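Researcher: Please translate sequence to structure tokens.
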Amino acid sequence: MNAALLQYNHSQAYVNDVLSWIDRYSRLGDGTIRIGQNATGDARTVINAALGAIGAPYSWGGGNAQGPRRGICCSPNGKSGAEITGYDCSGLTTYAFAQAGISLPRTAAQQSQVGKRIPAGRGVGALKPGDLVFFAYDPESDGTIYHVGIYLGDGQMVNAAGPDTKVRTEAVWDQGFAGGARLL
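Model: Translation complete:
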């Protein structure tokens, strides 16, 4: 949605205003909690940037603070991102947080060392919209973190899930949930 609005009017202030009105009107409807509705300020900026990337292809090693980029070869399952312009999980988070002026390190494991860590034992309910959410082979060991997304609220996240997928929203995964980090 972010990208579509920017095509109409190249002003981020305009995009933020339109998204704000969409949130307001959507809350008048059926009472359903809307993803990211409690996000304001920098958290809203991060979420809007990530949601604006929905549909972008997954690219191993792809994406940076400037947006989608060609990736590298090769993922652990042998998939190359070298010919795909898009994002991997940490490329997406790097891009989204850069829109709020926050520089993140390149990998999910490195990103878990930034901000205030939220342990997995506190559960998904401890996360706030705009937090990073991590997944690990061993949730008790930050050294095994392999994936990162951005928490949207209501148990949902936006992420670049893996090869042969696109940036999407989905429920926070139960398997491997390793907590989060609050940067905002």
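Researcher: Any highlights?
Model: Strands lie at 69-70, 85-86, 116-118, 132-136, 145-153, 156-159, 168-171, 177-182.
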